[in-house]
Please model this.
Amino acid sequence: MMKPVLTLGVAFSAMLSACANTPEPTVTQDPDWPERTEAEMGSAAAAAEIRARGPWQPPADVHCRSGDILLDGHFSGGQLGDCETGADGTFTLTLYPENAPPINPSPWYAARVSGAAGELLSMTIEVDRFDARYWPKLSTDGVNWSPLPESQARFIDDGAAMQIEMTLSQPISWIAGGELLTDDWYQGWLGGLAETGDVDVTLLGESAHGRPLWLAQTAPKAEMVMFIGRQHPPEVTGALTMRPFVDAVFADTALARQFRERFQVVMVPLVNPDGVALGHWRHNTGGVDLNRDWGPFTQPETRAIKAWLDANVSDDNRIRLLLDFHSTKRNLFYTHRDVDVTDPPDVARDWLVAGFARLPDYPVTREASALAEQANSKNWFYASYGIPAITYETGDETDREAIRHSATVFAEEMMKVMLATAKPAVN
Ligand SMILES: [Zn+2]
Model:
């Protein structure tokens, strides 16, 4: 493929390193794609075509066919970008972000593959202006997923693209950048929690396109903790972390019972349902990175959470901790610094020291930074309530069993540390 030279190449490669809270370089807001020279775009004709195209809108009818194999994206989370079929039967997907840059380079894709077992699938995944990122995962039942073996997938063109060649083993399968964790998955999870009787699942509000924003909570107490997730659609390992973490908090263990006795648990696990359903890289349908909207509150998804907090947080029902689950290239926690005063104090430090000590083989770091201007949840909750507010990031390709185990350990240590904090003074 023609690898376009990015006019903002340096800025975007810096952004590659983290999804949520790393200070990002200033990029001029441009309503359309940044201009590039005709040489960078391959030819005058290509340049004219790209300019005429404008911001990417996913086609309503996403499918392509080669011989006896059909690829389609007609399902929640489906995303093929532009799909073309070559004379040799090879599929080429070209992925585009849902909006013009600046955008985080998280090129999501998810295709359903229909064809007889034994058929050869040959597919190249290209990414307009960015590099390929997510190693392909395969599912034959839509539930269980595993990474394609290296004999069937590889990065090509210095990482700009990806090539998949495999023989179909089932008549229906899915290939995607990560597990398809869409509204069904959340509905099943929240339904299970609601059946326990301790958890109330309610409608917090609706997304811009009218998808439900679900809130799950236990009964109000003097103190509450809040967990949010999936502000960024492709960040499925954040969801794969959040679920066992929350399950540990709701487990039938002495520690978890003691924790729930003292703290109300409040969570909004799917903050960007439209972006997830539409296979976005980053934004909601308002074209906004929701984790840059804490403060402006211009979007219905963030506004709904803000309204709930305004109506519920009080001196009799204090928020004491915020955890926001994401994914990036590796496992890490973004926190404030130890010198920054929080109430309760020292939670980030004590929690992560204890968690890291129990996971000597799990590569994970803490990245502490001062309060910054960036309108993300971590900064806003810290600035608004003075509480520990932490972005919990799991690597895109972290082993799934290691995710489950580490999430359980971090949940247990979080509960111990929060139980050891002093209760707020009664007014
Ligand atoms: Zn993120």
